[in-house]
Design brief:
Subcellular location: Nucleus
Number of helices: 19
GO cellular component, one term: site of double-strand break
Mean pLDDT: 73
Catalytic activity: S-ubiquitinyl-[E2 ubiquitin-conjugating enzyme]-L-cysteine + [acceptor protein]-L-lysine = [E2 ubiquitin-conjugating enzyme]-L-cysteine + N(6)-ubiquitinyl-[acceptor protein]-L-lysine
Low-confidence stretches: 191-210, 216-229, 514-539, 547-558, 569-573
Protein name: RING-type E3 ubiquitin transferase
Number of strands: 7
EC number: 2.3.2.27
Length: about 575
Amino acid sequence: MLYTPRNLRLLVPLGWSSPGDMARALDIMRQRARGHNLSVCHMYNMGVCTAADCVRLHVCHRHVLDKCPLDNCGLIHSVVDSAHNMHALMKAGLSDTPVSEVLRRLREQIRRYPTRPSLCNSVYSGQGCQRHCLRLHYCEAFARARCKYGDRCYKSHSLRDAHNERVLTFFGWTDEEVLGVLKAKDSAISGSPIAKDETPAKGHDDAEGTGYQDLTEESGSGEGTETIAKKDGAKQRKRDREGLERTKGKAEEEVDMERQEWRRKEEEWNCRQKHWERLEKTWQEKEKEWESKEQKFVQKEKQLQEELKTLTEKQTRDQETLAIHEREREALEQLREQEQKKREHDEENYRKEMAEKEAQCQELTEKHTQLLTNYTASEETVTTMKRMNFELGQQLVTLQMLLKESEDRDVDKAKAQETKKGKDAETQADTIREQIKKQRECLECSICLGVFKKPVTLGCSHTFCRGCIEEASRAQPLGYGGGQSRQCPMCRQMTSSLVPCLALENLASYLSDDAPKQQPGAVGVRKTTNAQSTGDSGQGRTCVRCSDLLGRALRSRVACDHRVLRPTEPVTF
């Protein structure tokens, strides 16, 4: 109530005396009260403010304190970027106040009336706390160190569960601070019998009660600052009425004195009436100015709506772009799946090729093993042929010795019996010729039925002329046997080795009847060179290099240049 003597003494000298002036003064005081009680809505920070008449600012609580860790945390970081905040500022009379001043007042409000940790009384009730609560779900007895249930207590004994961790993170509290506040509140409650009846939301005095904000969802739809100011006005009127009753007598005297003073100053009041009229005109002009400001605010609100519409369109475009990106991502996923299938197909083909290559390698290994076996058998055959060549060589030496002994016997018989020389020589010659003929039969090729010419031995131990076996190989069908393999004409066994037999070649050249015809030069040398150098027929001479008779040496083309020795006595041949 502004019509108290004290208020009138303060307002009348300033020109505030009419009922309209008093109403305007009351509105100004209410706006100032709202400005002082302007605060941040905690329910908005939790994303659950559903109050239609919420008078608190929807702004990031941590941004006001310069503690927001993110530039874009999803909450509003400006007090003038939303219609709700502009409406709240207009109701508080701070629409023309700079943003920095509004933030300063909000910080001052938070410092003067900081949010204190409190325990939720409904979480452990029958229905439970089903709201987005910013109070702690904690055992009150455990906070006082009086919980007798210990681990069996159904109430939470930890400040690090999901709900309490969210509350501590939001307000930036630590465990030590929360426990200290709860213990201090416990000691205050235990020390004051009046404080025991207070709830955690009613622990402030009248001055602090206007700035305290409950930490539950219902606090967003609580009483506005205007209602609180009305309650404060009612309390003030009650106190003024009580004061008037106590000082009624003194007030009457003061009224009489003031009445006299009013009479003396009546003329002054009349003069001031004109001043009041001017003030009224000024107020009318201010009202017009307020109307123009209101129109500007309406225009600004329309502009904000247009911006909101633009943002909505932008969001729609962003969603369309996101849908396009999603389709592109799906296309990329399909391409990736196709690439994966192709890679798996290539890997399967590669494994098949590797399996085929391994099979080929295994087959080649088996063939290599078989070739090694054949090579070993060929080596054994070559060894056998060498042994046979050696035995044939020994037989040839034996035959030569027999021939030499035979010739010696012929010489002895010629010396002893000159008369029987011719017959015995002929007989011996016939015998020798028979033996040579028999030996020649052993030295005949089974293909051409002639004496061996450059004899070669196959892997099956059969011997043929080189020209005959090559001609027989050419006569075989194309691709028969493969490679350098040949088929033996005798046993039909396939073989690839041709071993020259020098012993048989020498024996064949010695026993061949055609040797003088094939080697006329060698015979001429014997008849001219050796005969002329010695002056005799050269019969019975011995070769120095081959230790053989001269006749045998001269019949061999390879021994035509050997040195021969003169016999100690004439030998007839």
